[in-house]
Amino acid sequence: MDFRKILHIDMDAFYASIEQRDHAEYRDKPVVVGGRPEQRGAVAAASYEARRYGIHSAMPSRIAIQRCPHVIFARPRFDVYRSVSEQIRTIFRDYTDLVEPLSLDEAYLDVTGCESAIATAKLIKQRIVETTRLTASAGVSINKFLAKMASDVNKPDGLYVILPEDAMAFIATLPIEKFHGIGPATARKMKQLGIEVGADLQCWSESDLVANFGKVGRHYFRVANAQDSRQVNPNRIRKSVGAERSFAEDLCTLDAMFEALTVIVDDVEARLLKAKKMGYTLTLKIKYADYRQITRSRTVTLPMHQAAEMGPLAQALLEHHLEPRPRVRLLGVAIANLVSAKDLGYQQLSLL
């Protein structure tokens, strides 16, 4: 049987590693990329030195500094991160045209056409170091799920291979919360059902998993049995365009929130214009001062791309779903169900 050769390349603490590379005073020290506690910021990335204190991405900065009082906060430089990411993708494309970026710092590569996937992964890792002075971890296997799991094994600067004959045994020992695509809530439910590791999941029939978890149960059945037919897609379609803002002080009035939404939808309009997209579904995100978060969506019959269309809809959702006596720390707006503005003939986009 012929197997595909799939790589998952994941940069090691990408944002934080760039800051340590570019600032000698940050090296070998706990570094967080993100907003400072007094700005009510959150951790976008943490160096491995910071992770030893239990600091991780999406953690409020005030908690990060409680766990490590001497942690260094670095302001994000996304223009630099994007530039380095493009350097890395250029390296990928020297080995295969089948590159599927997942974010600035990770991608799947189908290298089935290469003689040795392992040798190719080593070469890519070496060239990344030579070009960027950064390290990456690589997973090598027969499908996307296994390659993703493999890249996490020996971080940082790791290389791990899961051969076809070893796939089922590797999955059998994998803790259920480590499965890519199984979040904390699903993991808790699985543990309540006695599913602690992959071997437990392998004992379940597809029909029983669907009965307990819905359609996604089919995916759980397949990956538990080392089956993943998803192709590496170099033309991955963007699913949404959005923007959000966190606030130095909680917003407590509708007027203040409406004013904030005006700025946010202007940003979304600019991003839609740049992407040449329009969308049918608007989603409003509200995060309260106690970190509870809700999202509410509405789909319309004509695609949106202008702030004049998105603003009133976002305000209506906010007014309808906002809790009494609110204290809001973050608002966001995203447009989904995207279509190409060019395909719909909306030439006025080019005039905005």
From TrEMBL:
GO CC, any one term: cytosol
Localisation: Cytoplasm
UniProt-recorded Gene Ontology molecular function terms: damaged DNA binding; DNA-directed DNA polymerase activity; magnesium ion binding
Catalytic activity: DNA(n) + a 2'-deoxyribonucleoside 5'-triphosphate = DNA(n+1) + diphosphate
Signal sequence, start to end: none
Binding locations of Mg(2+): 10, 105
The UniProt record lists the keyword DNA-binding: yes
Cofactor descriptive note: Binds 2 magnesium ions per subunit.
Record domain UmuC: where: 6-183
Required co-factors: Mg(2+)
Key words of the record: Cytoplasm, DNA damage, DNA repair, DNA replication, DNA-binding, DNA-directed DNA polymerase, Magnesium, Metal-binding, Mutator protein, Nucleotidyltransferase, Transferase
ATP-binding in keyword set: no
EC numbers on record: 2.7.7.7
Site (Substrate discrimination) residue list: 15
GO terms (BP aspect): DNA repair; DNA-templated DNA replication; error-prone translesion synthesis; SOS response
UniProt-annotated catalytic positions: 106
Domain of life: Bacteria
Function (record text): Poorly processive, error-prone DNA polymerase involved in untargeted mutagenesis. Copies undamaged DNA at stalled replication forks, which arise in vivo from mismatched or misaligned primer ends. These misaligned primers can be extended by PolIV. Exhibits no 3'-5' exonuclease (proofreading) activity. May be involved in translesional synthesis, in conjunction with the beta clamp from PolIII.
Assigned protein family: Belongs to the DNA polymerase type-Y family.
Stored PANTHER family: DNA POLYMERASE KAPPA (PTHR11076:SF33), DNA REPAIR POLYMERASE UMUC / TRANSFERASE FAMILY MEMBER (PTHR11076)
Binding partners and assembly: Monomer.
Protein's name in the database: DNA polymerase IV
Source taxonomy: Bacteria, Bacillati, Cyanobacteriota, Cyanophyceae, Nodosilineales
Gene: dinB
